[in-house]
Amino acid sequence: MSQHKLAAGAAFPQLTVTTFDGQQVQLGTPRADSGANWQMVVVYRGRHCPLCTRYLNQLEQFREELLQTGVDIIAVSADSKEQLAEHKTKLEVGFPLAYGLTQAQMDALGVYVSLPRSPQETDHNFAEPGLFVVNEEGNLHVVDISNNPFVRPELQSLVNGLRWIRDPDNNYPIRGTRQDDSSQLQYR
Length: 188
Known about the structure:
This is Thioredoxin peroxidase. With 188 residues, the protein is of the alpha+beta class. Helix content is 23%, strand content 20%.
């Protein structure tokens, strides 16, 4: 089974989602009022996943630090608005939450997709975790995808790394962009 994965440095796909408060937003585009010029897009499994709830609540602890670094946050799942409303009772986050991620959008993001194990789990296919950091040029600067809820970036390391990347003195390029098999070493 072939699955498309987004390439580091590539243009982030133009995908529009709906936030809980009804706004149509484009993933990868920071909110105008955030003061940020990068955006972290966190794809999570949905309300049925207690590990997602914990991860999103932990991410909230880094929201201000990320904004100071110039990185806005949005989280999105394939849940319905009703499922998100129920999930919000367990979430204590100040960043936008979006719902209704479609199969086509999950495919465009290259995330792994799972079928529900039972109607009690959920009533739709859902994305496994993905984290995408999109830079001011609309390109994918950092990408992490997983096929299960147990593997995700450790948040303090991620925030420290983004601070390092965003520091102009470090001149740190997008990593993982080598696409050919040339054996010549080129330092960047």
